[in-house]
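FAQ: What does a multi-protein file look like?

Like this. Sequence, then tokens, then the next protein.
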Amino acid sequence: MSTPTDAISLVCTVRDEEDNIGALLESMLAQTHLPDEIVVNDCKSLDRTAEIVKAYARRDPMIRLVHGGVNISSGRNSAILHARHAIIACTDAGLRLAPTWLEHIVRPIVEDDADLVGGYPHPAPQTTLEGVIAAANYRDVHELATRAFVPYGQSTAFRIDVWRAVGGYPEWLDHCEDIFFANRARAYGYRIRYEPRAVVYFRPRATLPSLARQYFNYARGDAVGGLFGTRHAIRYSTYATGLALLSRRSHASALICAVGASAYLKRPYRRFLTLFRPTTVTAMLDGIALLPVVRATDDLAKMAGYPVGLLQRYVRQRRPPASD
């Protein structure tokens, strides 16, 4: 039985999620270790999301629907402000929690081995393109286990005191707010731990345009939040170097580019052929052909989004503070 200091509020913020909110709530209610409450913050949904949550709340008093916020950061903060308990477990709409997710995500906190815990977001592709997108963009369970691990907002837990100390999620950020939050917690000296057994399942983007929008926004969020500047600079310089080599139209330059591209795509190809193994030869060949296209789509979207974010950051910093 939970003690007051170990009681758990499972929170999420949603907006226009009528097609998947039921699956998320069902997976919350099917946990091997149930939370003490489930707080769903509706962020101005225009569809039936709120009505569906209300229907679940009528059947199970553990569920509470609250309202607040204008983006995912302020929505998360609103959900946490309404939470009644000391441990916050956080997830997002569009996901399905493995039955033991909550048990594993909070255990390091309950046992005082960590202050902030992140789980493993497991892609669950349903098409060849989604499998390629998953292979290109999402590290496997072992690759995430690094000292620089940063918990994602879709699968994380922390004591509410951590959230208070770092000032909550940054409401001026529409994207990458979870990375900013975790980096700030690390800077404050809080212990961060990766728990690979805390699994959430999600479906990758289904089309190249939706993928491009996703990574454009991620890169824009990086720039606004001052995140990963070196990583983006390396991407620009790598592509610039590649274009310069190709412009020489020599066999040596083409060979250098081919070797570089092969090294860049080696790990995504390995993931595609092992983790997201195609079921037919046609699907395998389609995936092999699609992977460079997906990687290029990711990179071009990031290179387009980052300068937009830099401009937004500059405007934000130049804007005079609001008067009281």
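And here is the next protein:
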Amino acid sequence: MNIINALGEIIEDIMDVDGKAIHEDTYLIRDLGAESIDLLEMSVAINARFHIDVKDDDIFLRQFRLFLVEAERLQTDQALYLRERFPFLSALRIKEICADLEKGPALKIKDLIAYIQFFQS
């Protein structure tokens, strides 16, 4: 089973959402309404399903804005700084997230996939 299907099953089970609503570009919080307890349950389920050590702050990009501000304060390249903090995200995805932050939490299913793929390697 591929990662998107396995994640879809996890999200369907935890959040009681229709699997048809789950795609790589689906926003976990904006589109599906994920709350803190949902994310905690997902973290545990991802850990068990994929046998990887899940760090909630990283996989759910919780400190993304903080690191963005920190890079600015340090007068360093924000994209490079964020890439160091989130090595599982591509430079393009980091750019997309930065451009999308004004609309709210930018976490997408594809970010979870990237995390899982990075740590399964």
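Q: Is there any per-entry metadata?
A: Some entries carry free-text notes. For the entry above: The mean pLDDT is 94.
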